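User: I'm preparing a small set of examples for a lab meeting where we compare how different chains pack in three dimensions. I only have the primary sequence for this one, and I'd like the structure in token form so I can line it up with the others. Please keep the answer compact; I'll paste it straight into my notes.
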Amino acid sequence: MNAFEPNKSENQNDKDKPAKKTGEKVLIGLSGSAHSCVAAGLLKTQGYDVSGAYLHMADKPKAGTLGFESRCSSRFELEAVKAFCQKIEIPLVEIDARGAFSERIVDYCVHELLQQRRPSPCIRCNSDIKFEFLIKKADELKIEKIATGHFAQVILDMSTGMARLQKALSPERDQSFTLFNIKPAILKRTLMPLGGIPGRMVDRLLIEYGFKPLKQFHSSKGYCFTDNKTYPKYVDERVAMQLRPKGIIVTTDNQIVGSHDGFHYYYLGQKDNLVLTMKEKKELYVIQFNHQKISVVVGAKEYLYKKYLFATETNWVRKVNALQSFRCAGRITPNGKEASCRVIQFENQSILVEFDQPQWAPNPGQAIVFYEADEVLGGGFIETVYEKDPTTVLTAKIGPSAALAGKKPGSAAQGDQKGQKPTK
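Assistant: Understood. Below is the structure token output for the 424-residue chain.
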């Protein structure tokens, strides 16, 4: 028996799929970029009864202030969305998500950084803002489907009625990593028409719909509401000095080599913007935060390789058998490489991940997303990283894993095997 339930799947882009219902209603989010408008145009040409939705997530900051704005509701202005909807003759509704965005994304990011964690704002915004508000508005309007301009594919499981998530056809534009946290009940009502067509075709459609071709595709990364260079100053403006004390930068042998303006300026693996006073030039990275001494510790790259990590808040797009561990590929950054690993489930949506080879600089707060071939199995948020097997520690802290029942720490669990590949 596999860790993942077997399935009979069908890609929404397959030629032999059932014909779409003419006039089926769909509400598409149009706040992100010109790509979402192209997706709306495609859906209309495919026979859907399309309505657009623009999410207001933040007001523009006043001149001379360090307020915030949402990249997804400022990079592509409301007036441009209105003009496009008039052009293709679809109605547009506006949704006020500003309060939720401020609390769930901006405040969340500030809190994470003050805890020396790397936030995952795009992932949280997708699940907690965009998809949640879209599905709520769709229900109010009695519309069954929602859609977005994300580059990923939704797979319909004809036997269960559930949906699967798959990488985009164009790997360089794939955004499946940032979508793992979408709940299955919402995902099965979602359309992503851009994921199954080549990127060059999307570029041609941009021109056909009257948009200028984009010189570079902007994938979901970084902080969506402020520039990376000004973000620490934004935190400084919002947070009292007592919660962001200044301190020193030291080497692994306790040599003082600089000073810092607060932990929130740094993350594990950082080597840029380190102002060090060392005479001998070495390539050093942030490897640790010493809270007792309020010091940032720098050292060689080798200190940052970790083989084990503990993650929480897991969401499984594909159904998981909690009694088995399983093998798959894990990725810890949106554009990073996948690495073979073993996943062991514990209670309260938590997991232990053991990589075959140590991974460089995983940070608490980052997401880890699991793949089987091109399919997203699910993922979670990194809580702690370890050099050595922490099974005994975790068992004492949160209880034993059913997948490890009767097994010694570090040994292969019964039924430890790959998740089944989706049916093509």
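A couple of notes for your slides: Residues 258 and 276 are 5 Å apart (CA to CA). Helices lie at 34-45, 78-88, 98-114, 121-140, 184-187, 199-208, 231-238, 391-398.

User: Perfect, thanks.
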